[in-house]
């Protein structure tokens, strides 16, 4: 039962009206195809049994409310998108039962920003057409299920900001035929499996703030031809980069030692580089000056020396009358401006 409707969003939901006239409802050919009550400020308990009679419903969005649920999943066969993010859903769903017949058409599930605990439910893999699964910002614990590798159409997987531990399972690589975005940050996962080298289409990889201490497999980096964003902060491993598609590289607070490799200058799309709080030494490679799109370079709390080399880019941007928006943060070094 809805206890509070501060914006009177449900005032139009009366038996005398056609559901297609309800606020937040979209119809197709006279049948309800989408219900979107996101950000309505609703509070109370919602039962999904009320939606099961809507056999043409394909999108249900109830995010950013204060809702509890009596039952978490629908039996609506046409449903494709379920968004329950940032509500008040708590407790364990480890024993959740999801029959294949009830989620065979689903392409997107978003349960992020709640207080859900327990293991990530294995039956989620019954939703074989899933393209996006977001379980971030909850209290899930245990290991990442190996069965997630069975989701062959998965494009985006977000498990960040939970309490997951153990190794990233080898089986994740089995979903790499379609995987484009993978977030596992702020957990306690351990070793990066070589099987991720199969993720040749991946664009965003966020493994920051874990307990990863093994070397980052060079085999993986060589295979990431589409990689744009690589976030590895708060771990402890050395890395070398050759990805020309990278637009953001963030590896602060690792145990990276030695000199800044010249290969970083081959990542021509880079706009942000963050190497702060490591053990880098030596001089700044002048080749960094060839990075035309670089706007932020952060390398404080290392042991670098020499000259900051952005002058070539600045000159070329001035010749094209482009806006110069540089941010070089290099305190605690022996660096000087040319």
Automatic annotation (TrEMBL):
Organism from which the protein derives: Brassica carinata
Main location as per UniProt: membrane
Keyword terms: Cell membrane, Glycoprotein, Leucine-rich repeat, Membrane, Receptor, Repeat, Signal, Transmembrane, Transmembrane helix
Any one GO cellular component localisation term in the record: plasma membrane
Membrane topology term: Single-pass type I membrane protein
Superkingdom per UniProt: Eukaryota
Membrane-spanning parts: none
Family statement: Belongs to the RLP family.
Subcellular location, record wording: Cell membrane
InterPro entries: Leu-rich_rpt, LRR_dom_sf
PROSITE patterns the record matches: LRR
Pfam families recorded: LRR_1, LRR_8
Designated name of the protein: Leucine-rich repeat-containing N-terminal plant-type domain-containing protein
């Amino acid at each position: 039962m809805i206890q509070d409707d501060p914006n009177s969003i449900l005032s139009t939901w009366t038996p005398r009206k056609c559901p297609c006239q309800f606020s937040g409802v979209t119809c197709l050919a006279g049948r309800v195809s989408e219900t979107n009550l996101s950000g309505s400020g609703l509070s109370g308990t919602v039962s999904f049994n009320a939606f099961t009679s809507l056999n043409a419903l394909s999108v249900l969005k109830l995010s950013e409310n204060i809702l509890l649920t009596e039952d978490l999943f629908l039996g609506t066969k046409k449903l494709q998108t379920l968004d329950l993010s940032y509500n008040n859903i708590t407790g364990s769903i480890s024993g959740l039962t999801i029959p294949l017949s009830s989620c065979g058409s689903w392409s997107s599930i978003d349960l992020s920003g709640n207080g859900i605990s327990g293991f990530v439910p294995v039956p989620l893999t019954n939703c074989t057409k899933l393209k996006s699964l977001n379980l971030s910002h909850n209290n899930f614990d245990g290991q990442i299920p190996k069965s997630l590798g069975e989701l062959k159409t998965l494009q985006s997987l977000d498990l960040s900001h939970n309490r997951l531990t153990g190794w990233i399972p080898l089986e994740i690589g089995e979903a790499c035929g379609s995987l484009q975005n993978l977030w596992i940050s702020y957990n306690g996962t351990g070793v990066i499996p070589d099987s991720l080298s199969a993720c040749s289409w991946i664009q965003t990889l966020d493994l920051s703030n874990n307990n990863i201490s093994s070397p980052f497999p060079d085999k993986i980096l060589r295979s990431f031809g589409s990689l744009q964003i690589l976030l590895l902060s708060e771990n402890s491993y050395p890395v070398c980069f050759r990805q020309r598609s990278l637009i953001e590289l963030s590896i602060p607070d690792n145990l990276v030692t030695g000199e800044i490799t010249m290969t970083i200058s081959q990542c021509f799309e880079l706009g942000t580089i963050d190497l702060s709080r490591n053990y880098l030494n030596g001089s700044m490679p002048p080749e960094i000056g060839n990075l035309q799109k670089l706007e932020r370079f952060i390398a404080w709390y290392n042991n670098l020396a020499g000259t900051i080399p952005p002058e070539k880019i600045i000159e070329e941007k001035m010749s094209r009358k482009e806006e110069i928006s540089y941010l070089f943060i290099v305190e605690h070094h022996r660096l000087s401006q040319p």
